[in-house]
Design brief:
Helix content is about 25%, strand content about 25%. By secondary structure, it is of the alpha+beta class.
Length: about 375
C-alpha cells in the first residue's frame, strides 16, 4: 500500500515563505526531540525523525526547494535518493548541532564535522540548462548533451593514493577519523588533526589524479524530452550527478529546459493561441480560410458577422499532455483589418455600402460589471 507523503512545510511546521533561519530552528527542535538516541526502541519517533530530516534536506537547498514548490514531491527525488538515507545510518546529535547550527568549535572546529564524516555520503546533484525550440517542446525529441562532472579516478578508485601502498592507517585516531576527549562528565569528539577525519593518511599520492581521487571529465548523455514540456520543466537523470563520498551513491542530474518563444503561437497551460487577420468583407459575409498550425494547414470557417476579438476554437490541436494522452485546444483570435488605402473601385463600393447600412454611432450601453463599478465609485 502506497504511503501519502505529508507536505514538507507541514512536517517542519513552517510557512511557505519562511527563511533559512526559521527552517533551521524548526528542524533543530524536531531532530533533537525525535532523534533515535533519545528515543531508543521508539519506532514512531524514528519515523518522525526521518520525515523531518527528509523535509529539511529539500527545503534547505534553494534549487530543490524551487522544484518542490513548483512540482511537489514529484519534483524532487525520493527520501532514499535525496533526503534521509536509511542506508547511511542516523546522523548523531553532534552532527545535527555542528552541520545545521554552526557549533563547529565544540565538536572539532569550524567545518570539522564535515571532514570527520567517514560514513558513506551521497554525491551532489548537478544542474544543466538546455534551450530547445518551441516546435521541439510540442513534438518531443532525443538529444545528446555534454555534461562536465567529477568522475572517480580509475587508478586509485577515489582514494587519492597509489593503489598498493599509498595509504596508511592514522596513528593518532587509529582509523576512526576522530579523537574523543573526556572533560569532566562530558565526552567531546574532535576531528583528528592528523588525518582530517579520513582515518587514513596518504603516503604516496595517486599519479593519475594527483591525490584528489577524482578527475574532471565531460560525459555524453542522451536526454529524452517528452512532448508537451514547458519552459522551466526539469528532467531528472538518476545517478548522473557528482560521485558519492566513501562509497556513497552518485547524485542526480537535473536538466532544466528553456523553451524559445514562437513568432506566431503563444502557450497558456496546454492551449495554444494565435491571432489571424481577416478583412471587413470576410468578417461580414463569413469565409473559409486556411490557417497554419503546428500540424500543417487547417481550413477554418469564419462565421458570418464576426467581430474583432472573437475567437474560434479548434479542439485537439493544442499542446500534448505530458505523460498522458490527448492534447489541449487551439484558439484563433480574429483581427479585422481595415485598409488604409483604397483603390477608386474599392472606395466606390464602400461609399455605396455606407449609404445602405444604418448609422450606428450611439454609445453602447454599459455592461453589468461597469454599472456595479460606477455604483461604488
Amino acid at each position: 500500500m502506497s504511503v501519502i507523503k505529508r507536505d514538507y512545510y507541514e512536517v517542519l511546521s513552517v510557512s511557505h515563505d519562511c527563511d533559512e533561519t526559521v527552517l533551521k530552528t524548526s528542524y533543530r527542535r524536531l531532530a533533537l526531540e525525535f532523534h533515535p538516541d533519545r528515543n531508543p526502541g521508539n519506532h514512531q519517533a524514528e519515523e518522525k525523525f526521518k520525515e523531518a530530516a527528509e523535509a529539511y534536506s529539500v527545503l534547505s537547498d534553494a534549487q530543490k526547494r524551487a522544484a518542490y514548490d513548483r512540482f511537489g514531491h514529484q519534483g524532487v527525488p525520493t527520501a532514499s535518493g535525496n533526503g534521509f538515507d536509511p542506508s547511511a545510518g542516523f546522523p548523531d546529535l553532534a552532527d545535527i548541532l555542528s552541520d545545521v547550527f554552526g557549533f563547529g568549535d565544540v565538536f572539532g572546529g569550524a567545518g570539522g564535522s564535515r571532514q570527520r564524516r567517514t560514513r558513506a555520503q551521497r554525491g551532489d546533484d548537478v544542474r544543466y540548462d538546455l534551450e530547445i525550440n518551441f516546435e521541439d517542446s510540442m513534438r518531443g525529441l532525443s538529444i545528446d548533451i555534454q555534461v562536465p562532472r567529477l568522475e572517480e579516478c580509475g587508478r586509485c578508485k577515489g582514494k587519492g593514493a597509489e593503489p598498493e601502498d599509498g595509504l596508511t592507517t592514522c596513528s593518532i585516531c587509529r582509523g576512526k577519523g576522530e579523537v574523543i576527549y573526556q572533560q569532566a562528565f562530558l565526552s567531546v569528539r574532535r576531528t583528528c588533526n592528523q588525518c582530517g577525519g579520513r582515518g587514513q593518511i596518504i603516503r604516496r599520492p595517486c599519479k593519475e589524479c594527483k591525490g584528489e581521487g577524482y578527475q574532471r571529465r565531460e560525459r555524453k548523455l542522451k536526454v529524452n524530452i517528452p512532448a508537451g514540456v514547458d519552459d522551466g520543466t526539469q528532467l531528472r537523470l538518476s545517478q548522473e550527478g557528482q560521485p558519492g563520498v566513501n562509497g556513497g551513491p552518485t547524485g542526480d542530474l537535473y536538466v532544466v529546459l528553456k523553451v524559445k518563444a514562437h513568432p506566431i503561437f503563444e502557450r497558456h497551460e496546454d492551449d495554444l493561441h494565435c491571432t489571424v487577420p481577416i478583412n471587413a468583407a470576410q468578417a461580414a459575409l463569413g469565409a473559409s480560410v486556411d490557417i497554419l498550425t503546428l500540424d500543417g494547414l487547417q481550413t477554418v470557417k469564419i462565421p458570418e458577422g464576426s467581430q474583432a476579438g472573437n475567437r474560434l476554437r479548434i479542439k485537439g490541436l493544442g499542446v500534448p499532455h505530458v505523460n498522458g494522452s490527448g492534447r489541449g485546444d487551439m484558439f484563433i483570435h480574429l483581427q479585422i483589418r481595415i485598409p488604409t488605402k483604397l483603390s477608386r473601385e474599392q472606395r466606390k463600393l464602400f461609399e455605396q455600402l455606407r449609404e445602405l447600412l444604418p448609422a450606428e454611432n450611439e454609445p453602447t450601453e454599459k455592461g453589468i460589471f461597469d454599472k456595479v463599478k460606477d455604483y461604488f465609485m
